[in-house]
Amino acid sequence: MRLLVTGGCGFIGSNFIRYVLGEHPEDEVLNLDKLTYAGNPLNLRDVEKDPRYQFQRGDICEEEDVRKAFRWKPDAVVNFAAETHVDRSISDPEAFVRTDVLGTLRLLRVSLEAGVRYVQISTDEVYGSIEEGSFTEESPLRPNSPYAASKASADLLVRSFVRTYGLDAVIVRSSNNYGPYQYPEKVIPLFVTNLLEGRKVPLYGEGRNVRDWLYVEDNCRAIDLVLRRGESGGVYNVGAGQEMTNLELARAILALLGKGEECIQHVPDRPGHDLRYSVDSTRVRSMGWEPRYDFRSGLRETVRWYRENEGWWKPIKSGEFREYYLKRYGDV
Ligand code: NAD
Ligand code: DAU
């Protein structure tokens, strides 16, 4: 299969490309990525020389960039490209609407013209917060942050292209991912690298919010399954069933790094902070998927990776990210 992967220099996209090239020797990948602050070509250094892999720098919002990628004649498109950080969407929502909504529209139109399968990488956040139970794929979309609203809008556009034009498209809505190559603004790599640097971890509010932690390789396996076997027009939730509060998460990370509770710094809460995300993954599980990593083994592997790859995250934390971080938290 010839796969056009967008946003492949980010966290999940780069793990997905590595996964596909490893699992499917006959596959080829073209990675279209704008290289925003979150896109890092070093995430794919180990596959760069693989003759089955190509990179094109480009923006999914720009028609010419997208058309150029389609001249490579992909069989399918997997769209990871997005602005992804909730806190950034609160301070600058426009960039989110541009890439996550207009960029998706651009890809949908060209995919339809080319007659290829389209996979939209979405998120459990489109359903909003749930205090008890879990959302199914039929639950209404009630996004609460500008990020979630832009992702929900994209999902609705995908739905409309399936219904109106008969596009062969599927949507994957995953829970919180963690693992190697995650940009250290997201909570797990932020906490791990802060502790490795001898800093504290900034916990929002009381740390009562609940997330369901999915190891990135498990998510990649689910996406790959839906890409190849998902029913056209189908939506697939992917959750690990490993929910915990942020305080429990912080404690698990502290324990692995041999640190005490004094390293937790409570900071003001995120505005509109969703209390709990939870999705029912029965549909993808009935196709034979289940997570292979429990949270303990996934977190151990993640901490090991950040310990052994200071050369990857230290330049990020001392560069542009440092400005952003100091503005948010001061010198925590
Ligand atoms: P990320 O922020 O690490 O990477 C995003 C990538 O997209 C970067 O490489 C960036 O350069 C690229 N990009 C941004 N704007 C672009 C544009 N206009 N044109 C081309 N490329 C562009 O993101 P991630 O955490 O790997 O998330 C990937 C996808 O998965 C997103 O769609 C996100 O909404 C979704 N998702 C993420 C999680 C999670 O926990 N990280 C969970 C569920 C769903
Ligand atoms: O649920 C899937 C989503 O998970 C993805 O769609 C998003 O792209 C991804 O960013 C992530 O969103 P979250 O807001 O859940 O992730 P984040 O890592 O930003 O925060 C996780 C939890 O930790 C959340 O409840 C807020 C809290 N937190 C976060 C940061 C950055 C803190 O307590 N302190 C922090 O410094």
Q: How would you explain this protein's 3D organization?
A:
By secondary structure, the chain is of the alpha/beta class. It has a single domain (2-329), classed as 3-Layer(aba) Sandwich (Rossmann fold), CATH 3.40.50. It is built from 12 helices and 13 strands. The chain has helices at 11-23, 63-70, 86-91, 93-114, 146-165, 187-196, 216-229, 246-256, 282-285, 295-308, 310-318, 320-329, and strands at 2-6, 28-33, 53-57, 76-79, 117-123, 169-174, 177-178, 201-204, 210-212, 214-215, 235-238, 243-245, 264-267. It has a 7-stranded parallel β-sheet, sandwiched between helices. Strands 7-10 form a two-stranded parallel ribbon. Strand 1 (2-6), helix 1 and strand 2 (28-33) form a beta-alpha-beta unit. Helix 2 packs parallel to helix 4 (93-114) and helix 4 (93-114) packs parallel to helix 5. The longest helix is centred in the N-terminal third of the chain and has 22 residues, at 93-114. The N and C termini lie far apart (47 Å). The mean pLDDT is 97. Bound molecules: nicotinamide-adenine-dinucleotide and 2'deoxy-thymidine-5'-diphospho-alpha-D-glucose (DAU). Nicotinamide-adenine-dinucleotide binds at residues 6-7, 9-13, 33-36, 38-39, 59-61, 80-82, 84, 99, 103, 121, 123, 151, 174, 176-177, 183.
Keywords:
332 residues; alpha/beta; Rossmann fold; seven-stranded parallel sheet; two-stranded parallel sheet; 12 helices; 13 strands; 42% helix; globular; binds nicotinamide-adenine-dinucleotide; binds 2'deoxy-thymidine-5'-diphospho-alpha-D-glucose
